[in-house]
Amino acid sequence: MHDPTLSSAPGSCMLAVGTYTEILPHVQGRGRGIHLLAFDGATASFHERQVLTGPVNPSYLCAAAGRLYGVSERERDAALEVYAIEAGGAALRPLGRIALPGAAPCHVSVNLPARQLYVSNYGSGELLCYALDAGGMPQGTPQVIARRGAGPRADRQEGPHLHYAAATGDGARVYLCDLGTDTIACHRVRPDGLAPMPERELRARPGAGPRHLALTADGALAAVVEELSNTVAVYALDEPAGERARASTLPRNWRGASAASAIRLHPDGELLYAANRGHDSVAVYRLRRAAPWLEPVGFIDVGGRAPRDIALTPDGAFLLVASQDDHFIRAWRIDPATGLAHAQGQPYPLASPACLCPLP
Question: What InterPro entries does its record include (predicted)?
Answer without folding.
Answer: Cycloisomerase_2, Haem_d1_sf, Lactonase_7-beta_prop, WD40/YVTN_repeat-like_dom_sf
